[in-house]
Amino acid sequence: MKTKPITKIRVMTYNVHSCRGLDGRVLPERIARVIEQFNPDLVALQELDVNRRWSKRMDQPHLIAQHLRMQCHFQSAIAVEGEHYGIAILSRYPFEIKKSVSLPSYPKKSIPGGSYIPFLKHFFEPRHAIWTSVTISGREIYFVNTHLSLRVKERFEQVKSILGQEWLNMDSHKVPTIFCGDFNEGPRARGHQLLKASFDEVKSSMPQKSSRKTLFSPLPLFEVDHIFYNGNLCVESVNIPNTPLTRIASDHLPLIADFNL
After folding, report:
1. Confidence at residue 114, expressed as pLDDT on a 0 to 100 scale
2. Could you tell me the residue range of the domain that residue 72 belongs to?
3. Strand 177-182 and strand 139-147: pairing?
4. Residue 80 — φ and ψ, nearest 5°?
5. Is residue 121 part of a domain?
6. Among 122, 124, 128, 123, which Cα is nearest to 77's?
């Protein structure tokens, strides 16, 4: 008997804040519970730790994927003495990595004595993107996850790089693409406008009065997490779950979109 082709997929992007909730507890299983509650097929995660002392030496992406019984790929953005910090993709469907590299960055700024400004360390983090090819009912979809810089000029260069010939240039790639993550910028930013020239954004289908903000989770003030798409995809629904669990599990709320293939 033939299996019915899959016609719908659910996508989530979620900055998990090293699985450290607003109660100060580091609980990958709590992040897994948030994800499990909404049953996505593809998940883009940002700010994950592997073997970091401050988060109890856990392999967070592995623990979350194991709980959800999903395939996982982790990309380290920072690696220091065996401690890793980065982004990951989880999938219910087979996937291959097409590209997983660092994005353009400017040199770090220093202060007298050669030390980097401690409270600005996040401004100078290396940034990465993961580009995967996912096979769903014999059809190929590109799924891309990123976490862009906090610095405006650097972030714009990173967006231009991802839209370039070696990444998602639309003249060379005709495969339906979902591109999501923590972009650290809102809809008025130059990078966001550049992306909208090649992609649609799922939140444009939300009711006008719906909140589109995901940061900070107890009282969302900023619209920095986005899901862009193009190709033969149609948005069915969009959700930013604001529940007691999502408000405490991370400093971001997850963003979820349902697509018809």
Report:
1. 36
2. 8-260
3. parallel
4. -135, 115
5. yes
6. 128
b or e along 64-91 (b: 16 or more beta carbons within 10 Å of the residue's beta carbon)?
bbeebebebbbbbbeeeeebbbbbbbbb
Residues 6+ apart with CB under 8 A from 41: 9, 10, 11, 91, 92, 93, 136
Find out whether 75 and 87 touch, Cβ atoms under 8 Å.
Answer: yes
- Separation in Å, CA 100 to CA 21, 129, 152: 28, 6, 22
The 3-class SS string of 16-44 reads CHHHECCCCCECHHHHHHHHHHHCCCEEE
* Residue 99 lies inside a defined structural domain of this protein: yes
One-character DSSP codes across 124-143: G---EEEEEEEEETTEEEEE
Q: Measure the CA–CA gap between 85 and 241, rounded to whole angstroms.
A: 26
Count of domains forming the chain: 1
Helix axes 28-38, 60-68, angle to 10 degrees: 40
What DSSP state is assigned to residue 118? Answer: G
Residue that is written with structure tokens 């690696």 in the block? 79
Residue 3 lies inside a defined structural domain of this protein:
no
Q: Which residues are within 8 A (CB) of 76 and not within 5 positions of it... i.e. 6 or more apart? A: 50, 84, 85, 86, 128
pLDDT for 119-147, tens place per residue? Answer: 345 557 889 999 999 999 999 999 999 99
Question: In this structure, are residues 117 and 109 in contact, taking their beta carbons and an 8 Å threshold?
Answer: yes
Q: Output the six-digit token pair for 50.
A: 């592997």
| φ/ψ (deg, to 5) at 260 | -90, 130
Instruction: Answer yes or no: is 2 within a domain.
Output: no
Q: Which residues pair with 41 in a beta bridge?
A: none
pLDDT (tens digit, 9 = 90+) per residue, 33-80? 999 999 999 999 999 999 888 888 899 999 999 999 999 999 988 878
